[in-house]
Design brief:
- By secondary structure, the chain is an alpha/beta fold.
- It has two domains: 168 residues, 3-Layer(aba) Sandwich (Rossmann fold); 162 residues, Rossmann fold (3-Layer(aba) Sandwich).
- It is built from 13 helices and 13 strands.
- The strands form two sheets. It has a seven-stranded parallel beta sheet with strand order 3-2-1-4-5-6-7, sandwiched between helices. Strands 10-9-8-11-12-13 form a six-stranded parallel beta sheet, with helices on both faces.
- Helix 10 links the parallel strand 12 and strand 13.
- Helix 9 crosses helix 12.
- The protein is globular.
């Protein structure tokens, strides 16, 4: 058993959702299995998110940092946590941990790992993990020692998926549709709802959403006009049963799309943020999903045409599902932790 400590610095919010916390949780679960003591350092977001981390028996250090206070207070607070737990590793997953933030902790002697999906800042971390299908097309600015772990080979899947027996999906007929745009823009979600519900009265539809209570309330009130044909699910963490339930999905190209691919669930994807746009383009290019581009620019007619194509062409669905199912395996987090251990033990000569 290792019994070394790892601090994971990550946050969630109405703007960025909970994806950063959820993918960090997958790595935390594997580290715990390998004997590491894992501590989450986070600015409290929603009670159910904190409860999910606590259910896994991880310690949570709640930070009292406002977004307008900059990185200085964040550095002071995080360093205090690292020292109090005598941690060796700092794992970071948020968009504002820039080069200066990383360099402070690197110079202080910590091993660093960034979970990233944009490549917008320069990195000095020992490891960068980007499990997106588009990751190898990004231009990362790094130090010579930085190890890039890019692509679905390093998929960050939680135990609820890895412990679940999966099998290739039978989608010979389409009866159940899942709509999952995360905590995205309400306007885009309502557009998708109208595009589907105005034409496909025979579909059993579930909508999963997150974001603010106001967003969820708007969606629940809006779907009432469809006379209980739609079930709205809010802040769902255990997603695997819904991925197995659905025949097709309409979704954004966030981290959760690799979870869907794991079960062979395919459908329509698109973007509500820059990083999602690149992922959706690559999924479309590889014939795994049909991309409609930016949801804000996409017409209801385009969504209907794309859905019609998928519903009518069973052979197309079969090929897409086969590619999705084989894109992701069960060993992504294991590969990451093995590389962390090699660097920690000095077995990776390029990492200093």
């Amino acid at each position: 058993m290792v019994n070394d400590s790892v601090v994971i610095r990550t946050d969630g919010s109405d703007k960025i959702g909970v994806g950063h916390i959820m993918r960090s949780l997958s790595l935390a679960q594997e580290l715990k299995m390998e004997g590491y003591n894992v501590v989450f350092a986070t600015v409290p977001y929603k009670d159910w998110v904190i409860e999910k981390i606590q259910e896994e028996n991880f310690r949570i250090e709640k930070l009292k940092i406002q977004s307008n206070e900059g990185l200085k207070l964040d550095i002071v607070s995080t360093e205090k946590i690292l020292r109090s737990f005598n941690a060796k590793w700092l794992i970071m997953d948020n968009y504002y941990f820039d080069y200066s933030y990383q360099k402070f902790f690197k110079d202080s002697g910590y091993f660093l790992l960034n979970i990233d999906d944009t490549a917008k800042t320069k990195f000095c971390s020992h490891i960068i993990v980007n499990h997106g299908i588009q990751a190898k097309k990004l231009s990362y600015r790094t130090e010579t020692h930085t190890k890039l772990l890019l692509g679905p080979k390093y998929a960050l899947l939680r135990r609820e998926f890895l412990n679940d027996k999966r099998k290739s999906k039978d989608i010979t007929s389409i009866k159940k549709l899942l709509i999952y745009l995360g905590g995205g823009k309400v306007k885009e979600i309502l557009k998708v709802i109208d595009a589907v519900c105005s034409n496909y009265s025979w579909l059993n539809i579930k909508i999963m959403t997150g974001g603010s209570d106001e967003w969820v309330s708007q969606i629940r009130n809006y779907v009432k006009k469809y006379q209980n044909r739609i079930e709205v699910l809010c802040n769902i963490i255990s997603m695997n049963s819904y991925y197995k339930w659905a025949d097709l999905v309409i979704c954004v190209s966030g981290s959760s799309i690799l979870e869907m691919c794991y079960y062979g669930l395919i459908g329509i994807t698109g973007a509500v943020s820059d990083n999602q746009y690149l992922i959706s383009k690559e999924l479309n290019r590889q014939g795994i999903y049909r991309s409609v581009g930016w949801y804000k620019d996409c017409s209801s007619n385009k969504i209907r045409r794309t859905l019609n194509e998928l519903i009518k062409n069973s052979e197309l669905r079969r090929k897409m599902s086969f590619r999705a199912f084989n894109l992701v395996d069960e060993n992504g987090v294991k590969r990451i932790v093995e590389i962390m251990r090699n660097i920690e033990n000095g077995k990776d000569k390029n990492s200093k």
